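Example S7 (structure tokens).
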């Protein structure tokens, strides 16, 4: 599915798709997360949503391995996250089933609404705090929501950002937990897509090739990080996400 659709693109469309992944690398270099927020809505201008999600699988795994191992105590962190990871995996398989079986217009509408809602949530992220008692059920619930969204759009991050901010995670803990969940989620996504017949061995190679423009964009992102306010850049990414959601809604209703 992925290989055929990418090879069928015209020269300008293929250049546009490469530019999207280059921009995703810039975003990754600036804020450390957020590739799916850029890739999925913008790639939908050139390829089917299912192809955009599949293209992200290998880059997501590759770019989160290092961050997941940073700072040590990786196994103890994984044990702490096990209830969330269990529901995350379940949610991903359900989400991939929806991705591969839903009518295209219905899928566009569902993800368009989700993108707009996520942009609004992250733009005005509430400063709430979770008590240890609440955290016992909130973690698995967030894992399930992140899995559903991840299976449908490779976006594990937004529900997790809200949860980790609410739990008061320190910056290093925040980055490590996000990376572990993203790594487990993207590896599960790859397996689920493969089992559904949506990702062949050749498709994996095409997805792996997408790492190159991402790696080329990351140094530019690190350079930008030192020169622009993070809040300004974050707002730009979220506006792009909202516009992508509006475009998907237009596709769902208009064609």
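Recovered sequence:
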């Amino acid at each position: 599915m992925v290989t055929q659709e990418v090879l069928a693109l015209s020269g300008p469309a293929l250049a546009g798709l490469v530019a999207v992944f280059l921009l995703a690398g810039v975003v990754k270099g600036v804020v450390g997360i957020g590739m799916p927020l850029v890739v999925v809505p913008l790639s939908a201008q050139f390829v089917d949503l299912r192809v955009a999600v599949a293209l992200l699988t290998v880059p997501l795994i590759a770019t989160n391995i290092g961050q997941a191992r940073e700072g040590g105590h990786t196994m103890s962190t994984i044990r702490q996250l096990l209830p969330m990871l269990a529901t995350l995996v379940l949610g991903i398989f359900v989400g991939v089933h929806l991705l591969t079986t839903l009518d295209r217009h219905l899928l566009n509408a569902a993800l368009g609404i989700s993108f707009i809602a996520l942009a609004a949530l992250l733009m005005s992220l509430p400063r709430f705090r979770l008590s240890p008692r609440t955290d016992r059920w909130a973690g698995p619930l967030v894992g399930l929501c992140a899995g559903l969204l991840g299976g449908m759009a490779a976006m594990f991050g937004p529900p997790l950002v809200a949860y980790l901010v609410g739990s008061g995670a320190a910056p290093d803990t925040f980055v490590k937990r996000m990376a572990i969940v993203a790594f487990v989620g993207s590896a599960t996504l790859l397996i689920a897509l493969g089992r559904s017949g949506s990702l062949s061995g050749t498709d994996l190679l095409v997805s792996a090739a997408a790492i190159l423009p991402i790696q080329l964009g990351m140094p530019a992102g690190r350079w930008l990080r030192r020169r622009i306010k993070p809040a300004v850049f974050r707002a730009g990414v979220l506006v792009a996400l909202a516009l992508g959601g509006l475009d998907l809604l237009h596709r769902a209703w208009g064609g």
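Notes on this example. The two ends are 21 Å apart (CA to CA).
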